Amino acid sequence: MATLTVLQWGFFISGWFAWTVDAIDFFAVSLATSRLAVYFHKPIGTVTLSITLTLLFRPLGALLFGLLSDRYGRKWPLVADLLVIAAFSLGTGFSKTFSTFLAMRSLFGIAMGGIWGLAVSMSLENMPVDCRGLFSGYLQLGYPVGYLMIAAINLNPRVASTSGWRLLFYIGAGFAASAALLRLLLPESTYFVERRKRQRRRNIVFIREVGNMMKMHWALCVYGIIFMTAFNFYSHGSQDLFPTYIQKDKGLSQHDASLITIIGNCGAIAGCAIGGYLSQYLGRRLTIIVMCLFCGAMLPLWLLPDSFAGLSAGAFFVQAGVQGAYGVVPVYLAEISPVAFRAMWPGVAYQIGNMVSSASAQIESTAGEHLKDPISGLPAYGRVSAILIATAAGVLIICCFIGIESHGAPFEQGRAAFEQDGGKDVVEGDHRGGLSVRNSLELHDKAVFTHIEA
């Protein structure tokens, strides 16, 4: 951590705060689901449609803002994205009808889709190589921190009232505007400034290199989408309906559900930091496998207790396993992604995974209402969630076994998307064309194995 410069810290904190804002605004709906159902006179399964729509539209935002970032820089697309989020969050709070509420959340999803790819690319491309694993975990823990913050705000009696749900979105708009201001105060990404000096005919080259990237990496695109679909089922299965599960299945109060959510997110924060740090030594895929197995072992503790203490412990350890694996995702996707499209490609893979898993909340709520507990007769939201989490963890383990590892990829030396051959993963070092990131990794791995054998 001491190796970072002040500017590198500024880039990281700005990306981290933007990702935290994403969580604050997204989970406001999850925490207010019961109150929204009462206010709009809709069943919980219908209210969760807003979560589905938000996730459904996020790939569009990832594609739009990701391409803008890879072409025009990391600064202004992120500032614009955050301001749009603030506007739609404010509009959500002013919604009078359920139709308006759904429309706001759909438009909101487009804006939210751009945040992750832009935050990751800006933070990690300016980061020393040895710090990537640790700071990948720190970056991803912005999400549980955001969840924790909005859950803590939700404890306020005024916010917890039937009409107090509006305050959650007003506060979210304020956080988004603050994140935009912070990014506005910082300069353009150092990497992007250096690459911009090297190319003049940027528009023509950029369009051609998008095509080169798609031709070269179509199989990697398929893998990334499957990988992130499983990850998003894994994450959302443990989060979206959790407060409802605590209240409906276990019979605890809304206040207790919020407290357990906060405790669970403390576990998520610890898991992100530990997972990201371990990945620098165990490798990205092995760390994800270990964390998935740990989460699976903790599921009985998450599901079986009825007491506040037992459920709190289960939430803590399951979220530590879920987000411990997720803490590796930013650096893993950044290292395997096409070098010149580190804002667009990881963001699109991440958000298409979100889109495919967008029905997770509705699956849980609908299945839970039909699958009654045989003793109490109450909805079995928790059992359905546990099945979903375990299935997603199994798919992730399979993906990690068959996937690629690009640990330490020198993407910070790669050409930008508007440079000649930027879409072909060219790393500077040879004036006749450079060296492919994939080839450089193969040479690096060969040297490592030769050293081990010796």
Automatic annotation (TrEMBL):
<keyword id="KW-1133">Transmembrane helix</keyword>
<feature type="transmembrane region" description="Helical">
    <location>
        <begin position="380"/>
        <end position="404"/>
    </location>
</feature>
<dbReference type="InterPro" id="IPR020846">
    <property type="entry name" value="MFS_dom"/>
</dbReference>
<feature type="transmembrane region" description="Helical">
    <location>
        <begin position="47"/>
        <end position="69"/>
    </location>
</feature>
<feature type="transmembrane region" description="Helical">
    <location>
        <begin position="167"/>
        <end position="186"/>
    </location>
</feature>
<protein>
    <submittedName>
        <fullName>MFS general substrate transporter</fullName>
    </submittedName>
</protein>
<dbReference type="GO" id="GO:0005886">
    <property type="term" value="C:plasma membrane"/>
</dbReference>
<dbReference type="GO" id="GO:0035879">
    <property type="term" value="P:plasma membrane lactate transport"/>
</dbReference>
<feature type="transmembrane region" description="Helical">
    <location>
        <begin position="257"/>
        <end position="279"/>
    </location>
</feature>
<keyword id="KW-0812">Transmembrane</keyword>
<feature type="transmembrane region" description="Helical">
    <location>
        <begin position="134"/>
        <end position="155"/>
    </location>
</feature>
<keyword id="KW-0472">Membrane</keyword>
<dbReference type="InterPro" id="IPR011701">
    <property type="entry name" value="MFS"/>
</dbReference>
<dbReference type="Pfam" id="PF07690">
    <property type="entry name" value="MFS_1"/>
</dbReference>
<feature type="transmembrane region" description="Helical">
    <location>
        <begin position="286"/>
        <end position="304"/>
    </location>
</feature>
<feature type="transmembrane region" description="Helical">
    <location>
        <begin position="76"/>
        <end position="95"/>
    </location>
</feature>
<dbReference type="InterPro" id="IPR036259">
    <property type="entry name" value="MFS_trans_sf"/>
</dbReference>
<feature type="transmembrane region" description="Helical">
    <location>
        <begin position="101"/>
        <end position="122"/>
    </location>
</feature>
<feature type="transmembrane region" description="Helical">
    <location>
        <begin position="218"/>
        <end position="237"/>
    </location>
</feature>
<feature type="domain" description="Major facilitator superfamily (MFS) profile">
    <location>
        <begin position="11"/>
        <end position="407"/>
    </location>
</feature>
<dbReference type="GO" id="GO:0015355">
    <property type="term" value="F:secondary active monocarboxylate transmembrane transporter activity"/>
</dbReference>
